[in-house]
Specification:
The protein is mainly beta. About 10% of the residues lie in helices and about 30% in strands. It has a 9-stranded mixed β-sheet. A 3-stranded antiparallel β-sheet has the order 1-2-19, with no helix packed on it.
């Protein structure tokens, strides 16, 4: 099916058959990205004595499993400011609509002296890099970009099952969070395990800046981490939607979906 819509005085068309799933599959075991020392996803067959076994392979009538996952550590997930708040803010309350005008850009982290540990180098994405890629300080707000998606380079297949714990992976300069809030970007997506440094003494500066927490929390803003942007997705404009389970918690496994756009 084809759809047309108007955005910022321009008309666009998209076909629901032409999409890109930015989520990584979630499997039992270690074939997933993993961070913050989370246990691997796992499942067990549910049994009721000798009367029921939830496995067709074991002779049961249906498969009936209990899954154990850690959304923040096991794979692609979307989170809200409940992640850093005392109050019970949940992801299922973050969406008043489900289609967003999105921009994809690709950037390679740069090496800088760490501000957290002596004689250590950190790998970061800077605000200057983002502004350069967008060719303007106010590009996002001027163009009505509601979601920014950053693919880090090199875009290796190894991202799909990389063990990040204890490796001080790349992260984002904290001022980017403030700038995105000023640009009214509601959704920020990255293939990194976190927007903040793995070990930052609990500062969580990007998270707090982006959500403007606790001074003026942004209730409809989300961060998605551990996505994967396929090579065939070029930098540019897309339509973004989210497939989310309706869990009342601060973070849920998610499937961000990009639709190709044709302007006319």
């Amino acid at each position: 099916m084809q759809f047309e819509f108007e955005h910022q005085d321009r008309r666009y068309r998209f076909d629901s058959r032409h999409f890109h799933n930015l989520a990584l599959p979630l499997r039992a075991g270690g074939e997933n990205p993993n961070c913050y020392y989370a246990q691997n996803p796992d499942y067990k067959v549910i049994r009721f004595g000798d009367s029921f076994v939830g496995s067709v392979a074991e002779g049961g009538s249906v498969n009936y499993f209990e899954w154990t996952i850690t959304p923040h550590g096991n794979g692609t997930h979307t989170e809200c400011y409940g992640h850093i708040a005392k109050e019970n803010k949940t992801v299922d309350t973050c969406f008043e609509k489900h289609l967003f005008f999105a921009k994809v850009i690709s950037l390679e982290p740069t090496q800088v002296p760490s501000t957290f540990e002596k004689d250590t180098t950190d790998s970061i994405i800077t605000l200057a890099q983002i502004k350069t890629a967008l060719q303007g300080d106010f590009y996002l707000k001027e163009k009505g970009v509601e979601a920014l998606i950053i693919r880090t380079l090199p875009n290796q297949e190894a991202k799909k099952n990389r063990a990040y714990s204890g490796t001080n992976p790349p992260y984002f300069e904290a001022t980017i969070g403030t700038w995105l809030a000023q640009q009214e970007v509601a959704h920020f997506l990255t293939d990194l395990p976190s927007v903040d440094r793995e070990s930052d003494g609990g500062a969580l500066a990007f998270h707090k800046n982006f959500w403007q927490y606790p001074q003026n929390p942004r209730p409809l803003a989300t961060i998605s981490e551990l996505i994967f942007v396929p090579q065939e997705v070029r930098d540019g404009n897309y339509l973004l939607s989210f497939l989310l389970p309706r869990w009342s918690t601060d973070a849920v496994p998610s499937q961000p979906i990009l639709y190709d756009l044709l302007s006319f």
